[in-house]
Amino acid sequence: MTVRLCHLDDLPDRGSRGFDPQAAGHDTVFLVRHGRQVWGWVNACPHYGTALAWRKNAYLNAAGDRIVCAAHGALFEVDTGKCTLGPCVGDSLTPVDLQIQEDGTIQMTAQPHSTTTS
Fold first, then answer.
1. DSSP 9
2. Against a cut of 0.70, is the pTM above it?
3. By residue range, what is the domain housing residue 75?
4. Looking at residue 55, which CATH number applies to its domain?
């Protein structure tokens, strides 16, 4: 089963956006876009499990090249989810399995568990 998240044009290039695909009442996953590549991650820091964004859709540093945990400033690689700085160095974010359709529609499987990029 897949869930439609958005269209590629709805994501700013070198930007991010959160989603609540299972109607949990808060963003449980987020996407990061660089050109036509999109990565999806569960919105939980591996250190304490807290949400990453410091405000709605604010998952990246100013350069747009690292994911930042608002709770303690940990930095994660956009494409691998691996923590490169902070208390969880070496740990990784949990990836979300994405499918990007030819028309630009971005979908995820109902349960986040693996990664696919386009």
1. G
2. yes
3. 2-109
4. 2.102.10.10
